[in-house]
């Protein structure tokens, strides 16, 4: 069998090749599945990690795509095996998929480590699935590439574009004040998400898949191909073909991935007007690769690169428009001065060559630097704030917020959690004005638990009816990337671990200065010291289940919310011969 063995020696051969009773059983069990010895011996074994599930609408086509990947792997001389993994489909998973991101990362890593796998194709795309799969793949460090699930096709309702997430929120507010009817609301259910694929707005899904492409984890152009497009099937075939070659080249992440690749990803994130969630995921991913990255690194990039991609929630187009406009290569050609064009990813092709032929077919969807969606002085993709409310940082997408609120002082109205908020927010007697600063705590990585997307606090109904469209909202939670508004998120340290947010009281004055990067409560230090001494955590503590593990080991938002025992690049011993 050694005559079939390509160079370098295949990891899988430690399972299949030895003259041991254990290796006999591996060959025997593979034959049991109907495979002949010549079908698998000496061939690169390609693990297809598939996050398909009937609880993840965004991934529902991945079962078919896996078959296409397999066809191409066979044709290229490999042996494909599909390994089902947790889907972490956004929307259906309660309380939040973020509670399971690290779990899927662990599952990915361990599936690859414990099985005879030489290379991996990672199938995902719904929000957390992208960072999770990549974190696991990075920790495993075998040749791997990411195949994005692809965005859903454009939605439309009564002649208006409607995008997943962004318009749900918009029409929900209209329903609350009677601007649309119940009948309209039901009709909208079928209008926004009209095809297979991930959210078509610039939410976390498209932000993360496009960042993954920019760093080099996907084939060029892959992330913007709509899921329902025949080109998506062809891209899946190309992934199967490429991964077999990557195994032969031994192109593992540690052999190509650098900080410069991450910087390309961060620059792209800013031009996309991407989701605040990416700030957490990028830090977690970089740490898995042994690369240091901070919120300040990202904020510095944000101050240089304006939002160029005109997608909801910052703009008014959808992913299908972005695809027709030329996709990521077209954007990269326009922002080439901010990119390291020598970087090559899994395709082995430098960015310079990828963008050489790129053309933009719609200058309104992908703007020129001279005509951004949001000029830098009006707002940025990621503003980082610090102050006595958030000593370790908080973030805000000021490009999707009312610029009149960028400097603001107002009284706090504090909610202890989502139940407290839901019970009071629409109370006509609630003491609140447009100047009030709405605060929600116990929504952090430990307190949530899992840092749910509670940070886009609703505008109180009595203000909505007065025409108030935006106000300052602060939390230690996250916000959906499809949402907009003056929401200050990821306050660290969070309230549950005794962060200063826990000390704030209704009526305290809170001062925000986005241009200066400040967020403070105007409470005297001696008063804060008294409150700190009396602090008693109010979040729920779990004693068993994944949640207990999560609460014990999760790091804070500015550290990536990975588990403390996973967040570095320390090698784990490979399984031995027995
Ligand atoms: Fe899956 Fe938005 S719900 S990408
Ligand atoms: Mg989302």
UniProtKB/TrEMBL annotation:
Pfam families: ILV_EDD_C, ILVD_EDD_N. SUPFAM superfamilies: IlvD/EDD N-terminal domain-like, LeuD/IlvD-like. InterPro entries: Dihydro-acid_dehy_C (IPR042096), DiOHA_6PGluconate_deHydtase_CS (IPR020558), ILV_EDD_C (IPR056740), ILV_EDD_N (IPR000581), IlvD/EDD_N (IPR037237), Sugar_Degrad_Dehydratases (IPR052352). PROSITE patterns: ILVD_EDD_1. PANTHER family: DIHYDROXY-ACID DEHYDRATASE (PTHR43183:SF2), HYPOTHETICAL DIHYDROXYACID DEHYDRATASE (EUROFUNG)-RELATED (PTHR43183). Belongs to the IlvD/Edd family. This is Dihydroxy-acid dehydratase. It comes from Rhodovastum atsumiense.
